[in-house]
Protein: Sensor histidine kinase NatK-like C-terminal domain-containing protein
Amino acid sequence: MELYDMLHPMLELSISIPAIILCFLPMKNHLNGKGRLLLLWGIPTLILWCVGAGWLCWRLRYSTKLCMLLTQALLLLFYCKAVPLSRWKTVNVFLAVCGVFSSMYNLAILIDATLFRRSGAVALSLNSTILYVLLCWLLLGVLCYPATHAARWLLDEVETPETWYIFWILPLVFWCLNTTLRPRKYSTLYTNRVMHFYPILILALLGLMLLYYALFYWMARGIAKNIRLSQENKLLQMQTAQYRTLQKSIADTRRARHDLHQHFKALQGCVESGDISKVAAYVKAYGESLPPDTIHPFCKNYAVDAILHHYAEQALLQKTDLEAVVQMEEQTIIPEPEFCSLLGNLLENALDACAASKTPRFIRLHIRQQGSLYLTMDNTSDQPPLSDEKRLISSKHDGFGIGTESVRMTAERYNGDARFEWREGVFYASVMLSSAD
Structure:
């Protein structure tokens, strides 16, 4: 009997194991190779904690509620430290898991009251606790696929900070509702028709929460699709403009070549007349009438070349010296739209910083592909950007810089790295990307 009493609090605390596993499932792209280490050391440590804390609760005859709150607080701190992601995102995920698991606890109470007619204060029996633990592990199995696909996509792609600033309210409200609606005594469930509508209420809350997350996912997919189409349209416009410029340059060159033999005849006449001054004047006039130099491509990839030419023209208009040295293959190392978006964000931010600068403006871009791809960009920036920990704060709106955050997220998604630094009036951006395969 004492063994059963001792196992009871240990089992109640053990539901933190499937809960924290569910929290980590969407974070595979952000663990930087620490997933296996966390599994090997984190899970055994948590098991030892549940056994030790459960034994202490049994020994001192304490309720596991306070110990469970302490466990949740420690897990939240560990979770935020282990995942190098925005605190708003990690807290959102943790609260969502807490909200879902609180529904499982209410279901366990209902099953306990149905199978074993109880009285007094609500306290799960050992059999109901075992069933509660099984329900939690079953829930982990059911939500494994959505967590590793839909939830992971949301964390990787939804980079608007304002979304995560307010999204944590929903799981917190569901957790509070589940806690508030939880009966304090078993007699409450046996009163009137409570036993009939209480399970419907619990399942309805759980269904609404899951439905809300599903709607948010579908809405985010639609918004991301529109953004991607907008980026592709912008890239297409740049490519079209670049194509027209190349066509004009080719036509001008052909026209100049066609007229070249006529100029040779005129020069020959000047030479035969023996008037060297006429030759010099004619050559000077001809040189001034020549079309501009043919546009030289920055790289073999047409889309990336169009991006570079577009921002080179913008830099010329605002009197910024742009120097680009690109050594990369025709095929981009990551999907072409994502690389073009990354490069465009860096160049746009650099041009914005140069436009606000009073010192000589310059942008120095170097791209080198050798196995991995290395990109560095230095640009004039009179004022250091504001930052919060690892993220830069936008100068265009309240919140974090979406461009730099997008660059950092893209780099992390492809096992790379992105770093930003300001020193003595120059902003330095460095990006490393690995193959998408």
